[in-house]
Specification:
With 163 residues, this protein is mostly helical. The protein has a single domain, classed as Helix Hairpins (Orthogonal Bundle). The chain has two helices and no strands. The mean pLDDT is 85.
Length: 163
């Protein structure tokens, strides 16, 4: 075997090493991107939980506000000598209570819609992360197969050339 043949074999081995390194780096980058997407999904889930809790707290504040308004109405009616047991007084107090509950339920519904949008975003990130992980694995395996095919072709060419 001459010096040029040895140099050619060393060059082939170096190219194979570079190809393997490149494939491995691409796989790692794909997995890293998948991990980033999964982290974004977890952040979206946390934000959804926060939005739900914020809605619950705001609804509670609205209900308390309605109770305070009911008390204020009762106090005003009592100071104006209106019987609190009369139908008109009871209707006014009930209206205030119902308005407060309606506001609270509307707030809860809005916060649930917002939370659901964050959940949808999280699910989308999880799907993208799974797809990215699959792509990384698939590209790595495909690259290895192609490298094996290339090596096989070089071996066959070398075998035929040596014959």
């Amino acid at each position: 075997m001459c010096v040029l043949d040895i140099a050619g074999e060393v060059l082939k081995a170096t190219n194979i090493g570079r190809a393997l390194t490149t494939l491995e780096e691409q796989r790692k980058m794909g997995n890293y991107q998948a991990a980033l997407m999964a982290e974004e999904a977890r952040k979206s889930e946390k934000e959804a939980a926060y939005q739900r809790q914020e809605g619950i707290e705001e609804a509670r504040r609205q209900r308390l506000s309605a109770i305070l308004k009911m008390g204020d109405k009762k106090a005003v009616m009592a100071s104006n000598n209106i019987a609190l047991t009369s139908a008109t007084a009871m209707n006014a107090v009930d209206d205030e209570k119902l308005n407060g509950e309606l506001n609270a339920l509307t707030t809860l519904k809005k916060s649930e819609y917002t939370a659901q949008s964050y959940i949808d975003r999280a699910n989308d990130y999880y799907r993208k992360a799974g797809l990215q992980s699959f792509k990384a694995k698939n590209n790595y395996r495909s690259g290895l197969r192609q490298l094996g095919t290339d090596l096989e072709m070089q071996f066959i060419k070398g075998f035929i050339g040596a014959a």
